[in-house]
Design a protein that fits this description.
single chain; two-stranded antiparallel ribbon
C-alpha cells in the first residue's frame, strides 16, 4: 500500500533498482508530448506501454519525423529508432515492431481498430436492459440537464453523482449490476487489466528489444496477436504499409487552401476526417509553423495560428 498515489514510473524504477543493485533507472513523470526530439534521440530503441490511441499516434509520428534520408530517399539507419508497441484489453493483447519508413507504422493500422461502443438513445431512455444503459442515460440526459458543465471523470464527487442516479434508475427497471467500478469503466472506457495478459505482452516486447539490440535472432515482422479468452492462443502476421498513410506513406496529399485562410483553419481540417488528428503540429521544410508541445514552444508559436497563407 505504500506505493499507492505514486507515479508508476517512479515505483517501477525504484523496484528495479532495489532488485538489481548495479542498475540505475532514470524515471520521468511528465507527458511524453512534453519532451522534444532531442530527448528521444538519446535512445536506440523505444518500447511503448501507452494506454491510449492518441499517445501512440504521437509517438509514432515523432519517431518518423526524426528519420533522415539519403539522396536516394532511403532512410539513414542511424536515425531510425525502432518502436516496439504493446497493449492489452482484458484477456487480449498485442505487440508490434515498427521501423519508421521501413515497416508499416501505427497510423497504417488505425482503420482496423474497433470504434467505441455506442447505444441508441431510444434504448437508453425507453427500454434499458443492461446496467450500462442506465449509466449512459444518466450521463447523457440527467447530467447535461442538471449540472450543465463537463463531467470530470477523475472527480470522485462527479462519478458518485452518476453512480447513485444510475443505481436508482436500474432499480426502477429491475436491472442489477450497477456498481461504482462499472460506472467508472463505462464513462472512462476502462477495460479491466489482467495481470497475466500484461505479463505476456510485456515479455513479448522485451524479447523483441533483446533481438533488435543484440541481433541474437530475427525480430518480429511485424505484429503478434494474443488471445486468452478461449484458451491460450497467439499468432503473428505482417501488416503492410499503406501508401496513403499520412505518416509513412509515399503519396503526397494535395489540399487547396484559400490564400486568405489562416493556419488555424488548416489545423481544423487536420482534426476532421479522414485525417482525425487530435492535436496536430505543422512543420515546413525549413521551420516549425506550430507545435502543440512542449508548452513553452506552443505558447511561442501560438500567434502564428492567426497568420494567413499570403
Amino acid at each position: 500500500m505504500e506505493d499507492v498515489g505514486k507515479p508508476k514510473a517512479q515505483v517501477a524504477a525504484e523496484y528495479i533498482m532495489r532488485r538489481f543493485k548495479d542498475v540505475k533507472v532514470e524515471y520521468y513523470t511528465k507527458r511524453i508530448q512534453e519532451f522534444n526530439t532531442d530527448f528521444y534521440e538519446r535512445f536506440h530503441i523505444i518500447i511503448g506501454g501507452l494506454d491510449n490511441v492518441e499517445a501512440r499516434r504521437w509517438m509514432n509520428s515523432t519517431l518518423h519525423s526524426m528519420v533522415q534520408f539519403e539522396e536516394s530517399q532511403e532512410p539513414i539507419m542511424s536515425t531510425v529508432r525502432p518502436f516496439i508497441d504493446g497493449g492489452t484489453e482484458g484477456l487480449q493483447g498485442q505487440s508490434r515492431v515498427i521501423y519508421p519508413f521501413i515497416s508499416n507504422c501505427y497510423e497504417c493500422s488505425l482503420s482496423s481498430m474497433s470504434n467505441e461502443k455506442r447505444y441508441n438513445i431510444c434504448t437508453l431512455a425507453e427500454t434499458p436492459r443492461v446496467p450500462e444503459h442506465c449509466i449512459e442515460y444518466v450521463y447523457i440526459k440527467e447530467w447535461n440537464e442538471q449540472m450543465k458543465r463537463k463531467l470530470n471523470t477523475d472527480s470522485k464527487e462527479d462519478m458518485t453523482w452518476i453512480y447513485e442516479r444510475a443505481l436508482k434508475r436500474a432499480e426502477a427497471y429491475g436491472i442489477q449490476g450497477v456498481t461504482y467500478m462499472l460506472t467508472m469503466g463505462v464513462l472512462k472506457h476502462i477495460i479491466p487489466a489482467v495481470a497475466t495478459t500484461n505479463a505476456i505482452v510485456a515479455a513479448s516486447c522485451v524479447s523483441e528489444a533483446l533481438k533488435i539490440g543484440t541481433t541474437v535472432s530475427v525480430h518480429l515482422d511485424n505484429q503478434m496477436q494474443y488471445s486468452g479468452q478461449t484458451g491460450t492462443y497467439a499468432f503473428t502476421f505482417q501488416y503492410e504499409r499503406s501508401d496513403n498513410c499520412i505518416v509513412c506513406g509515399n503519396k503526397p496529399i494535395e489540399m487547396v487552401l484559400k490564400s486568405e485562410s489562416k493556419l488555424s483553419d488548416f489545423m481544423n481540417i487536420l482534426k476532421q476526417a479522414p485525417y482525425n488528428l487530435k492535436n496536430p503540429s505543422v512543420r515546413s521544410n525549413s521551420a516549425s509553423l506550430y507545435m502543440n508541445a512542449p508548452k513553452s514552444l506552443e505558447e511561442e508559436l501560438r500567434p502564428r495560428l492567426d497568420m494567413t497563407w499570403k
